[in-house]
Amino acid sequence: MNQDLPPYIDGRDVDKALSLWHSGQVVAIPTETVYGLAADACNGEAVAQIYATKARPRFNPLIVHVANIAMAKRYVIWTTEAERLAAEFWPGPLTLVLRRKDNCPLSELVSAGGETVALRMPAHPLTRHLLETFDGGLAAPSANRSGRISPTSAAHVQAEFGATIPLVIDGGICTVGLESTVLDLSTSTPVILRPGGITRAMLSPFLPRLGETVTGGTLKSPGMLESHYAPGIPVRLNVTEVATDEALLAFGRDVPPGSAHMLNLSPDGTLTKAAANLFSYLRLLDDTRYRAIAVMPIPNEGIGEAINDRLRRAAAPR
Length: 318
Ligand code: TXA
Ligand code: MG
Prior knowledge:
It contains nine helices and 13 strands. By secondary structure, the chain is an alpha/beta fold.
């Protein structure tokens, strides 16, 4: 067992995770954004096991988590933009899409057969320790079944998968609560493919040529919203009035009365608090006792852009 572990880390879990990864299995890990379903990114069968566990469509590529920049350079053509952004935002909720190196040892499956890889260095101290000790990239999508709400606690992961995964490492509640920003640096104009914890305003000073945000990627028909992060009951957005058989997801002070049940993402209107609470509150309100989840408007600034992106997908036609 490693003597340098932070005190709350259970070294037995670390040893168990490493041996599961070495034998090609999937282990759920905490990150500061959401929990991930992690496997050895260089082992094609292990990566295939992630897709099978999530029931995820094959064409959706996976983020590879790295311990440091040196590890990133084993896999991709590192650029000056990547260097600048990593210096500023890593470890943290920023994923960089870069071109695969010649002879890149990563499974083709993490790129879904394409030429690029999405890389991220997570900030959670337990997961950084796991990555350093494993000494290789871990492919990890959010630890939910495809299309469903992302997990922000170990209990959420247990509820989603039960005994179908051999180990869930408990690193507490995720502090950011929304998935990382995905930034494509593989094309001539950098573009945000998914808004997240690192906002457009934070990135702009480092990227004078930052293009318009394109969520959903190239696989999506233009103008169509992909259903994702979907609770079991319908979601209704931007409500100012609520019915007596609806659950209300509120924000701020002016909460409309009369709902069957209400949870407030942030009574004082703080967007980072709302982001951290979003997925767990959606889970709590996802109950067939209610006809729908009614959601109050959220300001579309800073991380509010990412919150609204997730809410639009949660409300999209299934
Ligand atoms: O915060 C996060 O990013 C979490 C934690 C676990 O790190 N992970 C996560 O992974 O949200 P996932 O698989 O649920 O979402 C990955 C996103 C998808 O929208 C995927 O299409 C995009 O990243 N992506 C992955 N690889 C890509 C690539 N090579 N090119 C473009 N987009 C990519
Ligand atoms: Mg996901």
